[in-house]
Automatic annotation (TrEMBL):
Record-annotated Pre-mRNA 3'-end-processing endonuclease polyadenylation factor C-term domain positions: 101-307
Signal peptide: none
GO biological process, one term: mRNA 3'-end processing by stem-loop binding and cleavage
Any GO MF annotation of the entry: RNA binding
PANTHER family: CLEAVAGE AND POLYADENYLATION SPECIFICITY FACTOR FAMILY MEMBER (PTHR11203), CLEAVAGE AND POLYADENYLATION SPECIFICITY FACTOR SUBUNIT 3 (PTHR11203:SF11)
Coiled coil: none
Keyword terms of this UniProt record: mRNA processing, Nucleus
SUPFAM superfamilies per the UniProt record, alphabetical: Metallo-hydrolase/oxidoreductase
Pfam families for the chain: CPSF73-100_C, RMMBL
GO cellular component: mRNA cleavage and polyadenylation specificity factor complex
Name of the protein described by the UniProt record: Pre-mRNA 3'-end-processing endonuclease polyadenylation factor C-term domain-containing protein
Amino acid sequence: MSGQTLPLKCSVDYVSFSAHTDYQQTSEFIRDLRPAHIVLVHGEQNEMLRLRSALLRQYEDEPDYRLDIFTPKNCESVSLHFRGEKTAKVVGSLAKSAPTEGQPLSGILMKKNFSYHLVHETDLPTYTDLATSEVTQRMAVHFSMPPSLLYFHLAVVAGSVETVRQKGDCHVYRVFQCVTVTWEPRQVLIEWQSNPVSDMFADAVQTVILKAELEGMPWQSVPAPARQDSTAFRTALLETLSEMFGPDSVQGRPDPRKSGLTFQLVVRNRQVEVDTGRLTATCEEDAPLQQLVRTVINRLRQVLLPPLRQLEEAQAAS
């Protein structure tokens, strides 16, 4: 401190330093990480907007990479939205059998904390504290016609009628697999478990019964039941498929006289399994083709397999 000069025992170097990255460094960093959201801060406004535009142009031609870039002002908040995968566990009666690929599952989705479970409605009391109840509705309708005429009108509106019981003056039928119709002298009792679908079916049954009672059609005026000819149905199905897809599409020589006939249909190297007994068509490789063949089967079934196949039995029972 006395003014004496001290010898220099260190080196002095000049190093350039920037507190911010340039475009090249930022672009390389983004290319390596590929983030979904980028927030640019601490820069001159115009330069930040130029950097944002350059980054967006760089990735605008990549369809599988969507980039969101924000340039907020000081004290301006930014909201980021993240999409997370949600997985639901199937439990209860829905999980008794292993599902196949593409099979739809219908149930009630429950959320507890951060977990999701899919259960059947009947399993709610088991997996939750919720109590379930069923409402059974019964409706008595005046009907003075014989049970055979009731069966005829039910078959017209429902397609197929299941005879549950026929004993004395009590005839019980089930339609739409959910509505029970009981014929008794001078009245018909309609019973079903209330839900939107069953209510709609019950309304249809009630309407057709009231209309039959109002019109008062005698049994002699009821059209004779069309007889089922399964052989004609199978023959028509084979001919229709051959005309649609070519004579070589039907494999082998299926015999239409054979009950429960199954055969292979090959269209554009796609194989379709056709079951005339169950009236189904299966093609795992081509869903549109499968639906097309099923539509053909259903249309022919509606024309050649009338639903009144048990009408004569009902007439004899009355």
